[in-house]
TrEMBL record:
<dbReference type="InterPro" id="IPR027417">
    <property type="entry name" value="P-loop_NTPase"/>
</dbReference>
<protein>
    <submittedName>
        <fullName>Uncharacterized protein</fullName>
    </submittedName>
</protein>
């Protein structure tokens, strides 16, 4: 996993980016995103998790120059469908997680890096 983390970190270093991380379940996954180089100013990320403790405990949010962030709780079917429409271009709230992950990974561009 460290090899892939390094590849992603190098691909995103010194570049503005937009990334969607869906269904994060461990603190290691979030900390791996931040890496040792941090984010370029203006970069954006959407992180979905079922445990708000993860975002409160992540190294990214403990840094000196904390990113601007908003926390949203998606509860209603309309909110979940809106999220799916914006991120995955599909409004169905019952998309299996594996399909959602494949679609989100497929929509991210890492340049020449093959993961």
């Amino acid at each position: 996993m460290a090899i892939y983390t390094t590849k992603i970190e190098n691909a995103l270093a010194r570049k503005r980016f937009f990334i969607v991380l869906d269904y994060i379940i461990t603190l290691d996954q979030l900390d791996a995103l931040h890496g040792s180089k941090g984010f370029h100013p203006g970069s954006k990320s959407i992180i979905t998790t079922q445990d708000k403790w993860l975002t409160e405990s992540c190294a990214l949010f403990k840094a000196n120059n904390r990113p601007k962030h908003e926390r949203h709780l998606l509860v209603s079917l309309d909110e979940i469908q809106h999220y799916n429409l914006c991120v995955f271009m599909h409004s169905c709230a019952t998309i299996p997680r594996k399909v959602m992950k494949r679609k989100s990974i497929g929509s991210c561009s890492f340049g020449q890096v093959s993961i």
